[in-house]
Amino acid sequence: MPERTSGGPTSRASSPSAAPEASGGSTEASTRLEAPVERVLAAVTDLERYPEWNDELSAVEVLALDEQGRPARARLTLVSPFLSDTFELAYSYPAPHGGVHVVSWVLVAPGAVLTRMDGSYLLADGGDGTTGATYRLRVGVSVPLVGALRRKAEKTVIDRALDGLRKRVEESSWD
């Protein structure tokens, strides 16, 4: 059973107005999901079920919950064509603003390869039962990797995650 924590981590995930760092900034992609924002938010915060819809994650263990019962820290095992690693992320949930819900994460316990992983889901209520979903990701690794290859790896992770999320939330049988 995960422990409960008070307060949340401060995410270093980039915002639209943030200047990209020397590492090249973050990679992002957006899509429209045929599901209400509450359903998408429920799927995005149900970390332990990620391996059911995100092929790049083979295991997720929630280690701590925030005061609202949402995951605050989790251990994830990533298995992708680009790298495999186990690491820990801390999650934060800034207050919704203008109908946009944000779930952010930052690497707090690096793995053997991952040295940085900042990211976020931005979920915008479409007002018509749809949700605009943007996934941002910035990854650093301990092995030399050309910027274009890093961005390709980030883009692959993002595209697969958004495709899996779409399938998850648009299934009528999931809840």
From TrEMBL:
Annotated stretches, region: Disordered: 1-33
Domain of life (superkingdom): Bacteria
InterPro entries: COQ10_START (IPR005031), START-like_dom_sf (IPR023393)
SUPFAM superfamilies: Bet v1-like
One protein family per Pfam: Polyketide_cyc
Coenzyme Q-binding protein COQ10 START domain span: 34-165
Gene3D superfamilies: 3.30.530.20
Compositionally biased spans, kind Low complexity: 1-30
The name this protein goes by in its record: Polyketide cyclase/dehydrase/lipid transport protein
Organism: Motilibacter peucedani
